[in-house]
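Title: Comparing notes on inverse folding

I've been comparing how different people in this forum approach sequence design from structure. To keep things fair, I'm posting one structure and asking everyone to reply with a full sequence. Here's the target:
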């Protein structure tokens, strides 16, 4: 087999792989990970539209242009630990290239109740009170972000729940910056980090297993070799 024939087969194989596993299936993943592993030691900060409205946020830095398509995070319902039947989450992105994020977000997306909510099995405790820590994930309208520094704010609206407000989980003892926004005072900065992870793929999207990908590539490679070999035979027949 000459080199030209070999590289032609490789090129054809790759084209077939891309056609079968299009888009981000092979390339998608995490674009920023602030940690989203609930634990009994987690703290929580109120982030709720119900009066008085308080919006918690946390900064993140993108080293390259990215598209945000899904988010994972964790939080609690305080103080009665009775999650409302229908959540009403919103996500905001602020520019943080200056001294502070300012009061106007770049974008606001109402996620509503289109959220995967599961009990993490971990608990938040304060004195005699205890609340389950929930893990959340949601797909959002894709947001194109250039490289730079931003603030992510996630908040719920528990106005229909008279017993609980929603609090976003965070961790102390970790070098980081998170913030809280109150309309009367603006942003207040803290030395801790909220639980969240940003992704450029969709939660629940079909991503093939590595073994399936390998078998498919091997099969496509054989197919590519056979196609090119057939082309060579036809070419030889045409010239004789």
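Reply #1:
Here's my take.
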């Amino acid at each position: 087999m000459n080199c030209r024939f070999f590289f032609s087969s490789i090129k054809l194989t790759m084209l077939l792989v891309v056609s079968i596993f299009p888009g981000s299936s092979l390339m998608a993943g995490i674009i920023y990970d602030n940690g989203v592993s609930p634990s009994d030691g987690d703290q929580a900060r109120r982030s709720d539209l119900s009066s008085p409205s308080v919006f918690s946020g946390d900064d993140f830095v993108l080293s390259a242009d990215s598209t945000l398509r899904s988010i994972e995070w964790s939080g609690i319902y305080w103080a009665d630990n009775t999650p409302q039947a229908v959540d009403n989450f919103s996500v905001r992105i602020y520019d943080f290239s200056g001294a502070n994020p300012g009061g106007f977000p770049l974008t606001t997306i109402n996620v509503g109740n289109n959220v995967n909510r599961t009990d993490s099995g971990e608990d938040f405790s304060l004195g005699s009170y205890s609340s389950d820590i929930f893990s959340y994930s949601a797909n959002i309208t894709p947001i194109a972000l250039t490289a730079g520094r931003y603030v992510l704010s996630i908040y719920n609206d528990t106005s229909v729940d008279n017993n609980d407000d929603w609090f976003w989980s965070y961790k102390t003892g970790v070098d980081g910056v998170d913030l809280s926004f109150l309309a009367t005072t603006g942003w207040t900065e803290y030395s801790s980090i909220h639980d969240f992870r940003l992704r450029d793929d969709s939660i629940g999207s079909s991503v093939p297993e590595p073994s399936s990908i390998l078998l498919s590539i091997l099969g496509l490679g054989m197919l590519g070799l056979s196609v090119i070999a057939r082309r060579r035979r036809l070419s030889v027949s045409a010239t004789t």
